């Protein structure tokens, strides 16, 4: 049994290490959007290259995060976590030194691999290290400090872009890693899962990531109308079919089809796809709209986005407690509708937009909507499966959110007629933004309708989330399984699916 106490010096070091590691990934997911216009100007990049600056990271992270959890459980959580931090820092250095947009995109893909190794491990280390009496408080502190990191991200990103330059958005990760790694090696105990059998669904992970990459490329480049793009899209569909076929036939698949026998789990993941597709498109385009059209500086744009995350930090725990009393159906219906209203309010953000009159109201409503829905969504995911599969269910839901976001970032410019240089033309970008926000709002309304129709109250005694405080706007918080197991691939066919 783990016996490290939170009040001990070792407990403080463990908490510091895991917060530093998770903050690297959280900061990176929030600061890059603010830096996109500066990256485009400096590297003479097209809009498609800016889309890939976001999506290359998301493709590898979403495709490999379950595999990363399995590797930690088998080979040692500290070992894989440290490897992830070092990998992430090395890729960040490559991003910061990238001479062209192509090199930057490739480095971002490598950065996502590092994120997939360290992200599941940071929470799993806490679960596996602390005494059971201190574990809940340690998780609360970890998620709270991580949320603060997510909130600081846009502000910090804007300050770096306006000051030393956009490259420091990536180079910032290096000193964090230099502090994190030696502390982890000296103070964090190694742990693993004795039940881990060492069989990894590498083929499934590779097929999943490849399918996402091919389909994202086809959507991003579809406006060229070339034969190569059509063939890439067809190949993406074929690889996705091969992924499903492979997962159905493997004894220990990364994405066991049996978990979707739970109708509630399937329904809440459909809601997740809708809401995080809209969120991904919203935050990608709004960071550009504030700078390209409204004339905000990078620092001003980053600061402008703070209210949404601050509201989540302040009220996410209360929202989860309220949802426990009302059931998930109401918040999962009302939350997306509030976010849809917020996106329609952003239509007021144009040239010379006033922050208190045009920008802040939309972000406050957006924050209220996210507060309302994110905690109940996570709770419903965990309550929809057997407790032994909680980590897997959380990992699938987290990966689904990231995949939805990257598809939205790829598809929205296509759907709204953005040309390759749209971000250089304020009038053209403003017109496309005005077409994109109603599309995002419509996807949220669809998510609300799915929640109202399909989501029901879980039964008594279900697993509850341990991350009560969170501030990430890019994906729902991860949860571990039993005994500190990270969100992981596998599951086999021996587990009885929940069919509620």
Overview of this structure, please?
Residues 474-500 are annotated as: Disordered. Keywords: Antibiotic resistance, Cell membrane, Membrane, Transmembrane, Transmembrane helix, Transport. It is a multi-pass membrane protein. The protein has 16 helices and no strands. It is mostly helical and 500 residues long. The protein folds into three domains: 1-188, MFS general substrate transporter like domains (Growth Hormone, Chain: A, Up-down Bundle), CATH 1.20.1250.20; 202-253; 258-484, MFS general substrate transporter like domains (Growth Hormone, Chain: A), CATH 1.20.1250. Helix 3 runs antiparallel to helix 4 and helix 10 (263-292) crosses helix 15 (390-415). The protein is globular. The two termini are 33 Å apart. The relative contact order is 0.16.
């Amino acid at each position: 049994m783990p016996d490290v106490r939170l009040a001990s010096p070792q407990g403080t070091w463990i908490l510091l290490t895991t917060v530093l590691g998770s903050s690297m990934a959280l900061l990176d997911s929030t600061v890059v959007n603010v830096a996109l216009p500066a990256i485009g100007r400096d590297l003479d990049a097209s809009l498609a290259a800016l889309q890939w600056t976001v999506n290359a990271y998301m493709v590898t992270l979403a495709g490999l995060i379950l595999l990363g959890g399995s590797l930690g459980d088998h080979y040692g959580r500290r070992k894989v976590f440290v490897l992830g931090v070092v990998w992430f820092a090395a890729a960040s250095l490559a991003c910061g030194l990238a001479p062209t947009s192509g090199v930057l995109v490739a480095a971002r893909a490598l950065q996502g691999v590092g994120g997939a190794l360290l992200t599941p491990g940071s929470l799993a280390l806490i679960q596996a290290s602390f005494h059971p009496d201190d574990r809940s408080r340690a998780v609360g502190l970890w998620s709270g400090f991580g949320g603060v990191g997510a909130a600081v991200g846009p502000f910090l990103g804007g300050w770096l872009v306006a000051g030393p330059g956009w490259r420091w958005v990536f180079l910032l990760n290096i000193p964090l890693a230099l502090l994190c790694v030696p502390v982890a090696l000296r103070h964090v105990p190694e742990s693993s899962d004795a039940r881990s059998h060492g069989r990894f669904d590498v083929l499934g992970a590779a097929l999943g990531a490849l399918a996402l990459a091919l389909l994202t490329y086809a959507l991003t480049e579809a406006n060229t109308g070339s034969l190569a793009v059509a063939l890439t899209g067809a190949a993406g569909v074929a690889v996705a079919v091969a992924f499903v076929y492979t997962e159905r036939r493997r004894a220990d698949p990364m994405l066991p089809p049996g978990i979707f026998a739970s109708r509630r789990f399937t329904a809440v993941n459909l809601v997740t796809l809708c809401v995080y597709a809209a969120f991904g498109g919203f935050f990608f385009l709004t960071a550009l709209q504030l700078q390209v059209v409204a004339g905000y500086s990078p620092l001003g744009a980053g600061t402008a986005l703070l209210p949404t995350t601050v509201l989540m930090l302040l009220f996410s725990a209360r929202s989860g407690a309220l949802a426990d009393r009302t059931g998930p159906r109401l918040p999962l219906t009302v939350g997306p509708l509030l976010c849809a209203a917020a996106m329609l309010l952003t239509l007021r953000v144009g040239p010379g937009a006033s922050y208190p009159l045009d920008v802040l109201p939309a972000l406050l409503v957006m924050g209220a909507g996210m507060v309302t829905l994110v905690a109940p969504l996570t709770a419903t995911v965990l309550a929809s499966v057997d407790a032994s599969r909680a980590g897997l269910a959380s990992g699938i839901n987290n990966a689904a959110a990231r995949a939805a976001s990257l598809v939205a970032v790829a598809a929205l410019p296509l759907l709204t007629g953005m040309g390759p240089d749209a971000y250089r033309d304020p009038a053209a970008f403003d017109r496309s933004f005005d077409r994109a926000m109603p599309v995002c709002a419509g996807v949220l309304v669809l998510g609300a309708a799915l929640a109202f129709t399909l989501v029901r109250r879980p039964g008594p005694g279900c697993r509850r989330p341990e991350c009560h405080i969170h501030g990430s706007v890019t994906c729902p918080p991860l949860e571990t399984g039993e005994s500190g197991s990270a969100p992981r691939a596998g599951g086999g066919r021996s587990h009885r699916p929940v069919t509620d």
